[in-house]
Amino acid sequence: MRTVRRLLVVIAVAASLCAVVWVPALAGPLRPPTGLSGRADSDTQVSLSWNAAGGATGYQVLRGAHSGGPYALVKTTTALSYSDGGLVPATTYYYVLRSTSGSRTSQPSAQVAVTTLFTPPANARASADLDRVDLTWDAVAGVLRYEIVRSASDGTNLAVVGSTTQTSYTDTTVAPATGYAYWIRGVWTGSTSDSSPLTVFTGRRTTTTLSASPTPSEDQQCRPHDARPQRRPARGVPRRHLRPARVEHLRPGAPHRRAGREPAGLLRAVPGLPLRAGLLAGRRGGRRCHRRRKS
Q1: Phi-psi region of 26 (alpha: psi -120 to 50; beta: other; left: phi over 0)
Q2: What is the pTM of this model?
Q3: Among 10, 26, 187, 191, fewest CB within 10 Å belongs to which?
Q4: pLDDT per position as a tens digit, 137-148
Q5: Which residue ranges form the domains of the chain, and what is each CATH number?
């Protein structure tokens, strides 16, 4: 009988010890997550991440517009990260987390503030030439300046190649027959925001040679400079009595001298008429341009 009593005492003491060790752990409050951090992904989205809390089966994500609250529940998740979208550009948001396990909920975690990015330059356009690339984009309110970011088509050699306060820029440091990628970066105090990438390809250097070969009909229309004009004989004078005359100069309105030793036989060209018609018309005011054969 004494042995049974001693056994019962031992069991009671063991149960008491177990209650002292395990009950506080089961009945105690949940601890909130630690290591909460956030970053802005774009002008309308931020990303959050945190460390796991012991005993937690889920987490509540709460967001506020002011530091210290009030906060509103935006998501319940079992993951250790969350992306919050649909936000306003260039706006600061305040986040806290709570651990959950069944019906139990922990106290809020430490607060983290995240500011969304400014709206990036939109409607960026690019046109490439042989040795230049012209860029244009829409203006963004509140921007301090725009930086032109360029890389090779494979993503290498990323660098800022220019800066401007205007909404256009011409890059003249490009090479022919080369592919490039461009970003228009808006710069604010403590923040930047990049546009969508633009890909361009500069032209190749080309040489074009033009040649012209006249047809036989076109070739007959050309007359050499030393061609002798044809003259009509006066009425009653046989054609054989005429001597061809070579015009030394063809200035309109100026006297022209025949070749040979007859300085008195002059022809005058009339402006606005073809060569033959001008010589015939100019002959009326001068001496006769033919000589009769001596009898």
Answers
A1: alpha
A2: 0.51
A3: 26
A4: 999 988 999 999
A5: 37-115 (2.60.40.10), 125-201 (2.60.40.10), 243-295 (no CATH)
